[in-house]
From TrEMBL, chains A, B:
SUPFAM superfamilies: ATPase domain of HSP90 chaperone/DNA topoisomerase II/histidine kinase. Keywords: Coiled coil, Metal-binding, Nucleus, Zinc, Zinc-finger. Residues 412-464 form the CW-type domain. This is MORC family CW-type zinc finger 3b. PROSITE patterns: ZF_CW (PS51050). Its main location: nucleus. The gene is MORC3B.
Amino acid sequence: MAALPDRGVPLSTLSPKFLHTNSTSHTWPFSAIAELIDNAYDPDVSAKQFWIDKTVVKGELCLTFMDNGNGLNHETIHKMLSFGYSDKVAVNGLEPIGIYGNGFKSGSMRLGKDAIVFSRSSSSSCVGMLSQTYLEMINANQIVVPIVCFEKKNSNQFSVRKKDEASLRDILRYSLFSTKEELLAEINAIHIPGSQQETGTRIIIWNLRRTSTGAPEFDFDKDRYDIQIPSEIYETMQDPSQHPNRPNSYIPESVYSLRAYCSILYLKPRMQVMVRGHKVKSELIAKSLAFIRKDHYKPIFVKKRIPITFGYNTKSKDQYGIMMYHKNRLIKAYERVGCQLKANNMGVGVIGVIECNFLDPTHNKQSFIESDKYRKTMTNLGIKLEEYWNEIRYRRKKENPNDTVPVEDAMKRPDQNWVQCDRCLHWRKLPDGIDCSKLPDKWFCRMNPDPQFRSCLVEEEPEDSDDDQPSYRKTYKQQEREDRRQQEQKMQLELKHHEERRLNSLKKQGEALGRQHENLVQQLNQT
Amino acid sequence: MAALPDRGVPLSTLSPKFLHTNSTSHTWPFSAIAELIDNAYDPDVSAKQFWIDKTVVKGELCLTFMDNGNGLNHETIHKMLSFGYSDKVAVNGLEPIGIYGNGFKSGSMRLGKDAIVFSRSSSSSCVGMLSQTYLEMINANQIVVPIVCFEKKNSNQFSVRKKDEASLRDILRYSLFSTKEELLAEINAIHIPGSQQETGTRIIIWNLRRTSTGAPEFDFDKDRYDIQIPSEIYETMQDPSQHPNRPNSYIPESVYSLRAYCSILYLKPRMQVMVRGHKVKSELIAKSLAFIRKDHYKPIFVKKRIPITFGYNTKSKDQYGIMMYHKNRLIKAYERVGCQLKANNMGVGVIGVIECNFLDPTHNKQSFIESDKYRKTMTNLGIKLEEYWNEIRYRRKKENPNDTVPVEDAMKRPDQNWVQCDRCLHWRKLPDGIDCSKLPDKWFCRMNPDPQFRSCLVEEEPEDSDDDQPSYRKTYKQQEREDRRQQEQKMQLELKHHEERRLNSLKKQGEALGRQHENLVQQLNQT
Ligand SMILES: [Zn+2]
Ligand SMILES: [Zn+2]
């Protein structure tokens, strides 16, 4: 079984069974879908749009994923179908998410047994296949990945290189597509309607995972513009030990609705995701909160302060906790910390948003690797959140001493209104008082009341540089200090009074003694 | 980069970076060590003993793992250093644990950057190396795994096959061992003292993982016969969201002590584990409980009933929950279910033991893959546990109505006393009344008071066949039914009395009317 490369040392090889093994880290199916979205989002592909849909090919239910990025050639498709080749680097300051070089394999093989990739780059049109069924049928003892590239000869004639012929034969025999023309038709489908761009990648996954009852693991019928995890599954999906105190009614929508999950998947969304043909409205979580305060966390192992945005969820007081991102990608959602883990109302309704680039995500990007860095971070987030909670309660009490409604139960509106342009994808701040729910479904920069940002050509309003910005003032702490000072003053005053009283009584005793003495003297004088 | 095998289709290849990626699923270091133990435990190796130790080689701190199993040859070492080749099958009814063919890679590369394997089988002596440092230094773009086999020529002369020469060169250059003689010395160290057997495998891992402060992730000093996770790490190790209500004092010893973890790693231990030279006392959890009741779970997707043993922890009321095994291997420990997840005292102190071979463990074997099967199982375990809790409380109340001490707080002793023979590893039941803590450290069958099982040659006492055994009688349910019946009887009696009273009063009314009537008749007669 050993293939000896030039060095004369055996290669470590891959068993077909490893495809399943490797996919088991995605226990939650959206975690697998997110891997495919990440791949398109990353700077090497840098797609502006991403489509997720279901389709039926020759009677077989399929999931499809398409991006309008740069497309792949023979070499990059081969890396995509191999393990651990992520030579992704930051492009124009955009950091890649896919650092493990395993997203496509683990993600696609979690969703179904077989996947085929169609891609058109500026230089070529290629098809690659990663199929467990194929490997079983040919009795493979290593993972082979048929890859074929089409070369345009003239007009609509495409030729296949000699060395790809075996791959073409296997793809036509073992995929859902049985002629070269069917493959070319799928490549042509990568053309984005209404756009000049013709590069991009299209992934079709079939033999989709099913539950033990034989039903697909997704519900495509409940909402025709969404892909949902059926309620009987998501209601008990989360490991009960993980959220013992979270009744089902508090399960965040993002747990079972792909549309909701996609809306918060990126901290600063730069790619439009379409689920079943309809655009996902991205949510800038940190900007949708009420009573926003900016705090910072300065770990000893990181040079810079890490900004944290705290605020109250304006939509539901039951969804709260920390939104933890890593290189712009959501890792943990609504992760409760500190006082939120205790059986009281402290921290209820409070959301924190932090980008923890200094931590390492786990294999499935749904958690961070347990390390002392991670543990310190979680402890610290708990402390900061409690401070925020105290601060807001103190401020409200001070501003309106008679208000007995807890903050989390009061009506709240986001501190700021932000809207995304449907053409340039820039985010624009709207003036206070505008009701965002009344904006048109498609909004463009030219509708902006603020003339400064009324064109798609204008860059986004620069974010406040986090370096310059101070953490919010924890006034409740000043109050606490003030309270302590007053308490001390009061005690000193009491001490003084006490001393005075003692002096007084001594004085009176002295006077009484004096009088007695005088009486005695008088009596003596009289006798 | 493509190597084309016979079929003419490109191979999927492995990047050296994948070694790290693939190891990240083991967030908890004992999870990585357990993989190495599993490999020796599995029927293809079927070691009787396994040694875990630390050592220092040329100034470098190392972990060592050694078994006295069948040993490996060139081909099996190559599979061990490749991905997904688990052709393990059941031997004599013993099912293999390692189903993924990834344990050695993910486990060893989690513990350190580099590993070397020495093995002696009946036919050969081989050395293989999986080293991230080596791959970095030779600038490899695929994972290569040097493997060398030594052939005995005469007396103490060993020769190396031509095709292994390049591997030998790289091992001597990039491992901690720089001469052939040093390698052979390590192979010779596989000889087990006091035993005839000379086959086995010895793994040395170096460049051990360190924390951000540069300290090793293990504490070797706190207990010289244990390998522990330092307290500042384990105290906050578990994801706080996973066990929000579990104060640190309730962290099971198995979380931070390798010795304690090894003692419960297998449901029915058949291999002796030595941590730093001292034998680990295996614990038969299901047999160490008090008030044991045998229940069953019959999932719709499994033909047979699955036995569950419930009982009270006799050592600590704070460690409770379900011990979930899979093919004899512990997957989840102290997993709280049902009423144990609520903020009351229900289910406190109760342990359940179940072997869930019908579920699929995750990649790191620390959890099960989320599926509807898993969810149904957890729900059902919650119900069964609550029934057990009700039953024991009811029984105690009935037997001793004046006892106000809750079961979980009362002194308890295990229902049965079991001890393992140090020679044959058989488990023997001791008569009631024997205090196990007073047994000698080394116990042998010949010390058994029961003459029937007083020899190592005698097989273990057969377990009660679970198929024949009924689930325990849930007498509290009978009581509930009885209570309901009495309630109904009482109501019927009341209804009857009510009816009687009504009849009586009607009768009296009738009589009164009768008397009035008679009076009237008399008056009429008189006028
Ligand atoms: Zn615009
Ligand atoms: Zn014995």
